[in-house]
Amino acid sequence: MTLGSDVSGMTTTAASAAAKGLSIVIPVYNEAAGLAALHERICDLAKTLRQRYRLGCEVVYVDDGSADATLSIARSLPADAIDVQVVSLSRNFGKEAALMAGLDHARLGAVMFMDGDGQHPPALIEQLVRHWIDDGYDVVYTAKAHRDNEPFLRRVAVHGFYALINWGARQKIPEDAGDFRLLSPRAVAALRQLPERNRFFKGLASWIGFRQIRVDYEPAARAHGVTTFNAASLLGLSIEGLTSFSVAPLRFASLLGVILAGGAFLFGLSILWEVFTTGKQVPGYPSLVVGLMTIGGVQLIMIGIVGEYIGKILSELKARPIYFVAEHSEKHFEAGKADDAASRTAAE
């Protein structure tokens, strides 16, 4: 029985890379106000990539249960210079599930993941493609150049999260890396073979290995609306990432237990020493109550940490689908007709 997977036959030469094409996966949730403008920029980018690299492109919009007109606008988007797929999920399953749905429906070789709020600049995609085709990188990921405009506590929390998740991990997750990244065909093939249902894409894309390169950028301001990714969502994603890619919380719980046990042992020795040397009676109830409350609180925290891992095991055992597709539509760009029209326009 083979426990690994061989993707060495999927080369990353420039000719083979361009021939396979690029799928751009964009999960959208209540992005009706800016979707048409984003699509126009994606189409302009597709024209540039076709001219420069002879690279065919498609865009896969995944509507994650939007409550506004996002789906109807996505249906109306034209296939100008690029094939268009619209995948509508049956409800809001979350961004990680939407990314997986886009990956499952991507038909071309390489896959680009980016957000639909306009903060991931489409113009940067050309640089990511260049690292893939010209330089031979399999994973080209982006990261925020700085967090100077973010609150101090948020910066501390982000740094602490990456320090904890990478504590003792063989494969580190780059700090400040986001979902905006390009994966080569063989990196995509590797990612598709990972069977877990509790998915953390940043971690999975790092875990598969291959040649990776970081590209720093400054996110653009949202053109419309406000983010729906609040503090609670960030906390949930952090817990998901920690329990998916690290046993650091369990190690921390064990370390805390050792510290408490050691402290209790030393405290007991000090009490015995005081009794035998001075004959004083140990004060009872206050210290006893404080000790019991401390130990009880720590035990509940440890039970909660273990419970998170048990909950993930239960979720994997139930093996429910990650998402359900309620609607799927496609529009295909006809390159020949577009080239003829461009030639006629130039002749006139």
TrEMBL record:
It is a multi-pass membrane protein. The keyword Transmembrane helix applies. Pfam families: Glycos_transf_2 (PF00535). One of its GO terms (cellular component) is plasma membrane. It comes from the Bacteria. GO terms for molecular function: glycosyltransferase activity. InterPro entries: Glyco_trans_2-like (IPR001173), Glycosyltransferase_2 (IPR050256), Nucleotide-diphossugar_trans (IPR029044). It is found in: Cell membrane. The chain crosses the membrane at residues 252-273, 285-310. The keyword Cytoplasm does not apply. Gene3D superfamilies: Spore Coat Polysaccharide Biosynthesis Protein SpsA, Chain A. Belongs to the glycosyltransferase 2 family. GtrB subfamily. This is Glycosyltransferase. It comes from Bradyrhizobium forestalis.
